[in-house]
Predict the structure.
Amino acid sequence: MGAGPIGLAVIQCLKARQMDGQIIVVELSAKRKEIARQCGASTVIDPREEDVVSRCRSLCDGQGPAVALECAGVPASINTACRAVRTKGLIVNVALWDEPVPIDLMPIVFGEKRMAAAVSLTASDFRAVIDALESGKLKVEGMITHRIKMDEVVAKGFEALMKEKDTTIKVLVDVRA
């Protein structure tokens, strides 16, 4: 759920680890949908155009995916993930939230689903990411939509992230410039 910086990184990590199965991405932004496909998404769903739960079930033998990774940080998407995942499936929250989120627990309870969260990383995780970047398994260039100088962080960096969400993915700050 979501093809922002976190979601796109998750897609690439799944591909780099040679995950067996489909990578279904749910995203609104045309730019982010395009990059999700380039990163290796097998299917990209726009929730304004299709019913996400029905489409996920049809793509996964009528049951829905075994795992959903919530990367969007939007209440509608975590609740959609809870409904879309198959019985006894797993919902992993990777997103960061600004405020408490109401979650409908009924699909989790009656579907005997599990929820988990992932936010921190260990030194070995960090090393694995660096190795994957060095080897080319992770490609971040397509995710970088803006390059700015340190003194432009507020005027250009935050403004882009807040006002141009459809076209901004990652802002790279050049601390040397």
About this structure: Helices lie at 5-16, 30-39, 52-59, 75-84, 106-110, 123-135, 153-163. Residues 26 and 47 are 7 Å apart (CA to CA). The first strand starts at residue 24 and ends at 26.
